[in-house]
Specification:
The complex is a heterodimer.
Chain A: H1 5-37, H2 53-62, H3 74-91, E1 101-103, E2 106-108, H4 118-139, H5 143-174, H6 179-188, H7 192-195, H8 197-210, H9 222-225, H10 235-260, H11 271-292, H12 298-326
Antiparallel strand pairs in A: 1-2
Helix pairs in contact in A: 1-10, 1-11, 2-10, 3-4, 3-10, 4-5, 5-6, 5-8, 5-12, 8-10, 8-12, 10-11
Chain B: H1 2-23, H2 27-47, H3 51-76, H4 85-89, H5 92-112, H6 131-141, H7 143-170
Helix pairs in contact in B: 1-2, 2-3
Classes of the chains: A mainly alpha, B mainly alpha.
């Protein structure tokens, strides 16, 4: 199915708009839920039951003073948040959200672009996204930021290994790295969470660590590092880091839903509704974790990554490889 | 035509970032330039119809190895560089002679080469860069080399762990 250039541009703009709106309301949803978890209301003043709060936040952040601290490396300090946002937004392109359809006589595919190496593309972009945090922390010229950046580097590289290995089980079962193929393979058999429960568990734990969420939010542990890598950031640049973090959360939930929960496939409702529902469930889980668990100590975090998750992921990989090779799958 | 433009930009940025890597005085900035080189090379791989290699280039080199470089450099902090310029000083004339000689040699080779793809359009090579093609070449054509490499890497990893353990022990740790 061929797509016109104009169709691609409009589709990209629409999808990015939807995801950025989703970011704003994930933020609101998180604050409201955390409020409920702690037996208070959460934001409820701006607009009807607080639903204009994200708008108010964005306006506030845009009108704040844009400054660069004295000891900072100006260029890298400015570029770092852009790298983060670029990597997060670009990742949206390969997440499939529906079957192809026809509108006003134009063919539209239900994915930004279905590339042969979709899974690897996502990992490559998340690898680039780290640089936003690391360069930002280093360029701030602040000890807290630097420590946050160093923790980011160590934590993300450690958990990326476990995450990559947990995903390979799914890739072996679907025999493809393309996310669209993986969704179709699940529609033919069953959700891969049934065949890969251990892989899903490892994926979720690693996903929490990769997105710097509690209980793995060591890079921005406010009780010891002020705010970690974004200590010196304010106004719009801080908002960009924030945006990148939440879009990463949405992307990684969408990746989890696509790899293990059947992606956009489901009966009756259109594909993007199913994907949104599955993403919402995973996001709710992330928020629930944050409200429930205390932060891990740094050495335990590393121990969990290297001594528990990595061996488990390897075991899962070996078992899956044997089963697939013997032809029991499918 | 579009391919030529992308190639020119990617090749130029690979070369200029590469030059920055060896000329910048500050190690942290040199490493950031190294990221630029690696990404430009990844684009070149994409142009060669090898998306798998391009993705691995970004994931492994830019995404993991250089992050660790930055980690170490950020931890060690700003340190004065050891000066090696003085030793080179007397021999600088020879260095330039060597550089010019290499440039002439490269020019002569390029002018006389019969290799395909230099003066005529490159030939179609078929599927060599897809994940499937690379996986097949690993387990079919080059299995012995592949396994030998993995064994060598395993030995290196075990050796590194043993050396680190000894170092920790000598400092009174476990």
């Amino acid at each position: 199915m061929d797509e016109r250039f104009l169709v691609v541009v409009i589709k990209a703009a629409l999808v990015v708009f939807v995801v950025i709106t989703a970011f704003a309301y994930t933020l609101l949803w998180e604050r409201k839920l955390i409020g409920r978890f702690q037996a208070r209301y959460g934001p409820n003043r701006a607009g009807p039951i607080g639903y204009l709060q994200p708008l108010a936040d964005v306006v506030k952040l845009i009108f704040k003073e844009d400054f660069v601290p004295k000891g900072a490396n100006r260029l890298l300090f400015q570029i770092a948040p852009m790298i983060s946002v670029f990597a997060a937004v670009a990742a949206i392109a390969v997440i499939p959200w529906g079957d192809g359809f026809e509108i006003f006589g134009y063919n539209v595919e239900g994915v930004g672009t279905d590339i042969e190496i979709g899974v690897l593309f996502l990992f490559a972009l998340s690898g680039l996204g780290f640089y936003g945090l690391i360069l930002g922390g280093w360029a701030s010229g602040n000890k807290y930021s630097l420590l946050g950046a160093a923790r980011t580097a160590a934590q993300l590289v450690s958990y990326e290994v476990a995450m990559g290995l947990s995903v390979i089980g799914v890739v072996m079962m679907a025999q493809s790295l393309s996310l669209v193929d993986i969704v179709h393979a699940q529609a033919d058999t069953a959700w891969y969470i049934l065949f890969q429960p251990l892989g899903f568990l490892i994926f979720v734990v690693a996903a929490v660590a990769e997105t710097n969420r509690a209980p793995f939010d060591m890079p921005e542990a406010e009780s010891e590092l002020v705010a970690g890598y974004h200590t010196e950031y304010g106004g719009l640049k801080f908002a960009m880091f924030f945006l990148a973090e939440y879009i990463n959360m949405i992307i990684i939930s969408a990746l989890g839903a696509t790899l293990f929960l059947g992606g956009f496939s489901g009966p009756f409702l259109p594909g993007f509704v199913w994907l949104a529902l599955k993403v919402a469930v995973l996001l709710f889980f992330f928020i629930w974790l944050r409200a429930t668990l205390p932060r891990l100590r740094y050495d335990r975090l590393m121990k969990l990554g290297w001594k528990v998750l990595l061996p488990l992921a390897t075991l899962n990989l070996v078992v899956t490889a044997i089963v697939v090779a013997l032809g029991f799958a499918n | 035509m579009g391919e030529r433009i992308v190639f020119t930009i990617a090749a130029a940025s690979a070369l200029s970032f590469g030059t920055l890597v060896i000329t910048l005085k500050e190690p942290f900035r040199a490493t950031v330039a190294l990221i630029g080189t690696l990404l430009s090379v990844a684009v070149l791989f994409l142009l060669l119809a090898a998306p798998f290699v391009a993705a691995i280039q970004v994931i492994v080199y830019a995404g993991a190895i250089v992050v660790l470089f930055l980690f170490v450099i950020a931890y060690l902090g700003e340190r004065p560089l050891a000066e090696i310029g003085d030793r080179l000083g007397r021999l600088q004339a020879f260095v330039w002679l060597a550089v010019i000689g290499l440039a002439i040699q490269g020019f002569v080779v390029l002018a006389n080469t019969q290799l395909p793809g230099i003066r005529d359009d490159p030939r179609e090579v078929g599927d060599i860069g897809s994940p499937e093609a690379i996986g097949r070449s690993f387990i079919d054509d080059y299995i012995v080399v592949f396994e030998a490499t993995s064994l060598a890497l395993l030995v290196a990893a075990v050796g590194a762990v043993m050396l680190a353990k000894r170092a920790v022990k000598s400092e009174g740790g476990r």
